[in-house]
Amino acid sequence: METILSVNHLTKKFGYLTAVEDLSFEINKGNVYGILGPNGSGKSTTLGIVLNVVNKSQGSFSWFDGKLSTHEALKKVGAIIERPNFYPYMTALQNLRLVCKIKEVPEDKIQEKLELVGLWDRRNSTFKTYSLGMKQRLAIASALLNDPEILILDEPTNGLDPQGIHQIREIIKKVASMGTTILLASHLLDEVEKVCTHVVILRKGKKIYSGEVDGMLTSFGYFELKSNEQEKLFAFLESHESFGTIKEDRGLLTVYLEEEMDAAELNTLLYKQGIVLSHLVKRKESLEEQFLTITKN
Amino acid sequence: MKRLLQIEFIKLWNSRSSRILILAYFILLTSIALVAAIKFDIGPIQFHLAEQGIFNFPYIWHFNSFIIAFFKLFLAIVIVSMMANEYSNKTIKQNLIDGLSKKEFILSKFLTVLTFAVVSTLFVFVVSLILGLIYSDYNELPIILSDLEFLLAYFVKLVGFFSFCLFLGMLVKRSAFALGFLILWQVFEMISWGFLRWKFFDEPTTETIMGFFPLNAMFNLIEEPFSRLNAVQSVAKQVGETLVLDYQVKGYEILIVLAWTLIFIYGSYALLKKRDL
Fold first, then answer.
1. Closest approach of chain A CAs to the CA of B258, in angstroms?
2. What is the ipTM of this complex?
3. Domain ranges of chain A
4. For residue B218, what are the contacts with CB-CB under 8 A and spacing of at least 6?
5. Which of A69, A76, B169, B272 gives B84 a disulfide partner, CB atoms 3.0 to 4.6 angstroms apart?
6. pLDDT at B45 over 80
7. How far apart are the first and last CA of chain B?
């Protein structure tokens, strides 16, 4: 698989504060990555380092297997970090022309990208007259001008109203469906859960997990069960070695699995024991539950 | 190089205030020609400035390059703010993320400054040439082409001064404060002069030492041209003073200013490299 970005033992210190500590991960082509972490966990700093605006203290990173210098590589990257930054006195069109010059790409994509984010009609308004949502969308259009190999977004929905959030998410999904690699930093879990295939989780500058979203916890999920013969059910589950913790809440049993088992298998097993279920659901922990479990300790 | 200049041109020309200031600057450069129109005609006293010899070749190169150099303050505002605004709009960050290297960023600013200096010098050359051709008493080609080193000095003076402005914009990050700092620095150099002269050295030594300070070095490039005027000379003679004239452009003074230019540009680069944005 083609490596787009690899980060090796990266460390950043601001005076006494260590914002990023010994961080390593890899971004491969075609996946959608999320960098998760509470506020102040070093997400933006990490992105700032690989984007050439923050100096690293130790460690290294390389774009595209080190075949390109950082600023050459950045021409193939689209990135938005924090607030959208453009020249306030220039129109959307003028701003994008400038970006084309910097990235050394032809200007013929401007219309297509402005239409994608729904700003073509406002192309001749100066940037300072835009609302925050429009600014953010212009930033996305600008990041897409070079049809980037990877799109990096840092908290893209921060500070937007629900409508704006929805618009941005739709755009991200659209871009992801076109096969663009995406790296999304966020503390909003449902955002990451909806679009990402892989996650890197940071806490206080340290990586505590990186890999596929599904593999975050070595858990096999849990069952929610209900039966008319609750005691019998409880006793059976407790005696069986496949099950771990059992919780009861208003007549609903929540049973955590210790090993792989699907719903049909359990149903057959219980039926053979003469227990008839009135309710059977198999669930996986949501990203939020997993995230809270992982960042707790 | 063309790309870097285009980038900077888009940024400058689309800003109304920069555009107005740049235009005003070049109009002012041309307005030096208006000096020719100064004419008093009050009964017995007749005075026509153009006939006092200020437009004679080669003196005109000296006179105009000295006077016009004061207008550089207009461009100083543009240059300081083109650097400082990149910080206040945070566009410097976006430029770097978009794939401009830090070296290219500084280079694009420096190239713009060079362009300003080149265009200004050409302006001074053309305006002076025209004025000279109209009013000068001497029109022989060798005379016209002599003393052109004043234009070189003018060019170096502008490059040095504008580089200083760039550096201040980079250092202070706010245009108003950077301009304030520039004025403060001028005052500092004046006080240093007074202090050195008063406490430590005699006049020539003080001059030599102060010659290494950036603004003083830039000012020294072109000596004041007034004492060369016939009128001034004859007045001096009448009061029994002989003015010692040493108005040549000196090579080491150019070197000092070029050294400062290098320090300022490299300093800006070093600052940008070191800073976390």
1. 29
2. 0.85
3. 3-212, 222-296
4. B157, B160, B161, B257, B260
5. B169
6. no
7. 25
